[in-house]
Amino acid sequence: FITDKIGYRKSLILAQVLLLGARSLLLAAFVSRSLVLFVVEAVVEGIAACFTSGTGSAYLYALYGENGYLAKTAHAGNFGTAGFIISTVAYAGIYKISGMEGLLITTVVMNIIAVVCSFYLRSESSKTVIADRKEVQILAVFKNKKAFLFVISLAIFSIAWLLINFFYVEKLENCGLPVEWMSLIILSYSAVQMLAEPILGKLSDGKNGKSSREKLPAVTAAAAGVAFLLFGVVKFRAAVLLLMLILPLLLNLPEYLLMNLENQFVDEAECGSQRAATLSVLNMGVNLVEILTLSASAFLTKIGIQWCFVFVGCFLMVIALLFARIQK
Q1: According to the 3-state scheme, what is the secondary structure of the chain?
Q2: What is the pLDDT of residues 291-310, one digit of tens each?
């Protein structure tokens, strides 16, 4: 609610300042071996996360609107991916030269740079912040069945990312491939992932027609679902490696499209004046569904991690069918 009162840009700046404070506390906690400082750091970082929940999406939508949101979100995501690639490459060198303390100092320095850069963010239109100040019952959005569809869908995407981030290694081992390949695979699929921006730009081009664009969430979610299902059952090494490289990209495409639909849904629910708060509430619902889904995943891992990929693939295809229906 604070974000919608003070504006998205100011909230993003505040979040970066808080995150800098959290990282500084983490460094201090490590140097002094203080559990208290570590706990305080976790609290400050949690507060910073509250100011970013829904804010980035709301900020881009406020700046670029429905037509420009998709391309700009993918563009911003590519900067995050580029930063991830750079940090992955630099990690080993920094750690070898200066150990954990060096890594934490580097993190603080980069956070200082982030704070400085945040002041150069464009301000959203003042009418976005002050227009329509009537009180909106945000929880009322859940009276619309679409809200539950967005919550469940984005929760499934979060689970899918967890599988990619934590269980790729196990799949490598199951196929008899060296675990040492993992770093190269991570860098490779991160580079491939950056193709999301030009692909979405091409697919969502106005020349393709409105009906074609409306089918994109369902089509891309179905493609991601099929890929996850295949990844769970395929054991042929070349196929496994190929799927490892394209799965993150295939997951990014429908995820960005659903985030765009989510913002359109906020407009439909007449909650645009409290966009960040509404998106944040939806994110809370995502977190709740994640907890329930992870409990089921914990059971599935006992019978084989491949079944987690298979079930997520099936869920993604169900999501595709549901979005195909609501877009009619």
Answers
A1: CHHHHHCHHHHHHHHHHHHHHHHHHHHHHHHHCCHHHHHHHHHHHHHHHHHHCCHHHHHHHHHHHHHHHHHHHHHHHHHHHHHHHHHHHHHHHHHHHHHHHHHHHHHHHHHHHHHHHHCCCCCCCHHHHHCCCCCCCHHHHHHCHHHHHHHHHHHHHHHHHHHHHHHHHHHHHHCCCCHHHHHHHHHHHHHHHCCHHHHHHHHCCHHHCHHHHHHHHHHHHHHHHHHHHHHHHCCCHHHHHHHHHHHHHHHHHHHHHHHHHHHHHHHHCCCHHHHHHHHHHHHHHHHHHHHHHHHHHHHHHHHCHHHHHHHHHHHHHHHHHHHHHHCC
A2: 666 666 566 666 677 888 99
